[in-house]
Amino acid sequence: MTVNIRGTEFEENLKNGTGLEFYDLTHPWGLGVPCWPYFEDVSIWRLHTMARSGVLTNRMTITMHSGTHMDAPAHVVEETAFMDEVPLPHFFGTGVVVSIPKKKWEVITPADLEAARPEIREGDIVIVNTGWHQYYGDNNNYYGYSPGFYKEAGEWFVEKKVKLVGTDTQALDHPLATAIGPHGPGGEKGLLPRVCAEYKATTGHDVLQDFPEWEPCHHIILKAGICGVENVGGDIDKITGKRCTFAIFPWRWVKGDGCMVRVVAMTDPKGEYRIETGRG
Question: Mind giving me the DSSP string for the chain?
Fold first, then answer.
């Protein structure tokens, strides 16, 4: 026999009475969460336990660019908005989750974005599903071999005047246009020299021949005030190909360069739900 220790009232309060359908596009987060190649591991300590203290309290040391997270403009562009300075409407609105399947090291192009359906409109929150979220984990495949955006995609997003961009890959840029390649903190050999060497052996090109700029999509969209979400996953396949409403709120972190977020997509099958007017 299963005993419900939470009680009927607890279960009733958790029911969804809105008529809306909710989709969590966030990867699970916790101890052992995958980390970008040069980040320290997440550390979690239990300061209090139920057995010892009658209360549970955790302390964490984390990098805010951990798991499913958002980049603020100030992450890569000086004199732009920090996380707490981005207006709240930027984290909420209508948009699409589009399917743009890509293989190892392929680039997401403006032509791909133009052809995506539902159509990407001005003011949209745009989440791109390349299929790469299925590899999310502490592995070379996810971080070193993923597809991604490059300069031209960033320019397309700005020209289209979208509100926010998300991707189910390791970054807002192709991995070989990040420090994984010979850029910025990656130094002359890159954070993953074996990946750079394999790229040359496979294509006959040095990484810098095909990806001469360091994180151009980051710089282009963030400079334009378009925040970006990396490592989208969770229920993404269930909502792909649909137009929906998003709520993607970061912490109110003063001078924050980025923040973990809960990416929630919502649909209203009956069309009966309405936001309150604010009047009594």
Answer: ----TT-HHHHHHTS--S--EEEE-B---STT----TTSPPPEEEEEE-HHHHSS-EEEEE--SS-SSEEE-GGGTSTTS--GGGS-GGGGEEEEEEEE----TT-B--HHHHHH-SSPP-TT-EEEEE-SGGGG-SSSHHHHHS--B--HHHHHHHHHHT-SEEEESSSSSS-GGGSTTSSSGGGTTT-S-HHHHHHHHHHHSS-HHHH--SSSHHHHHHHHTT-EEEESB-TTHHHHTTEEEEEEEE----TT-SEEE-EEEEEE-TTS------S--
